[in-house]
Design a protein that fits this description.
2 copies of one chain form a homodimer. By secondary structure, chain A is mainly α. Chain A has 7 helices and 3 strands, in the order H-H-E-H-H-E-E-H-H-H. In chain A, a hairpin with a 7-residue loop joins strand 2 and strand 3. In chain A, helix 1 packs antiparallel against helix 6. At the A-B interface, helix 1, helix 2, helix 5, helix 6 and helix 7 of A face helix 1, helix 2, helix 5, helix 6 and helix 7 of B. Chain A binds a DNA duplex (30 and 30 nucleotides) through helix 1, helix 2, helix 3 and helix 4.
Chain lengths: 149, 149
DNA sequence: TACCATTTACTTGTGCGCAATTGAATAATA
DNA sequence: TATTATTCAATTGCGCACAAGTAAATGGTA
């Protein structure tokens, strides 16, 4: 009777766990910095898109950020409440929700620009390592998304 | 008047975002597999530790899995409810909660052993890439944890 | 035009994640 | 011993995350 091999179930053999833990720790590192701006991490990445694009549909945000409407809708409402964005229905297609960056939201950009280098410093990787991590996570992400369709 | 450089705020220049998105997508990929076992991802990683160790304190689980008690306590209660683990106070130190794997929980291991290779296949990385991703995420994790203390 | 399918967004329910607070047990120290 | 500090766990509150279900607008087709 051969003994079953459970090695694959060892936490130390799983890449999923450090990835999961690292992602959580990363969001935690953002905490103090984002608190100054009264933003959560999810609100922050929405704002990042808005700072780049000024205007976007809710659908575009959901797709780009890999967020469900169940997550995105309340996030957008909070950002509107904070007057960083506006939410209005598109005229051509009443289903679409048009999100626009407000002046208030635009101002926030200057208070956020110092954050990325701080986080990079926390992670303490070399440039090559950052690039490698970037490529690997995007590759895995692409592969997993293909499986879904 | 020099124009401010906002490049670091571009989503495409952030390693944090793909890491965050990849982690979420990964947990989502586990979904269908874990559903067969009636487990969530967090419950699953707790079980992984228990499958390896049979006995652990709540504190050890929290530290090893980087989980807060606010997260861990209800998770452990659910796993106890499902009779996969038992929870009892330690005799020597009444503060400590001793978690033990039950027979029911041990059985689950056989139904879980096929999952890791499925997930690895979903991610679609080469062995070298898996190893690199493993090293990089652990390195970043270690570095970030040092900053906290 | 009338009917059906798809798209977009919202809502509800459940669980994760964490900060902050509390309480009990233990350890450390005057 | 009495006092104080620390540790471990639970609780509360808030927001994220997502599945499932619903509704309205649009597009496609008989």
């Amino acid at each position: 009777m051969k003994k079953k091999n459970y090695d694959s179930l060892k936490l130390s053999n799983q890449v999923c766990f450090p990835l999961y833990a690292c992602s959580k720790e990363l969001v935690r590192q953002y905490g103090p910095f984002l608190k100054e701006l009264d933003l959560t991490y999810t609100q922050y990445i929405v704002m990042m898109v808005m700072w780049e694009n000024e205007v976007a549909s809710s659908r575009e945000l959901a797709e780009y950020l890999h967020l469900d409407y169940g997550t995105l809708t309340p996030v957008l409402k909070r950002l509107e409440q904070a007057s960083y964005i506006s939410r209005e229905r598109s005229a051509e297609d009443e289903r679409l929700l048009t999100i626009k960056l407000t002046d208030e939201g635009r101002k926030l950009k200057d208070r956020a620009v110092h954050i990325p280098p701080c986080i990079a410093e926390c992670m303490g990787l070399t440039m090559d390592e950052f690039r490698a991590l970037y490529e690997l996570t995007y590759k895995a992400l692409r592969n997993m998304e293909e499986k879904n369709n």
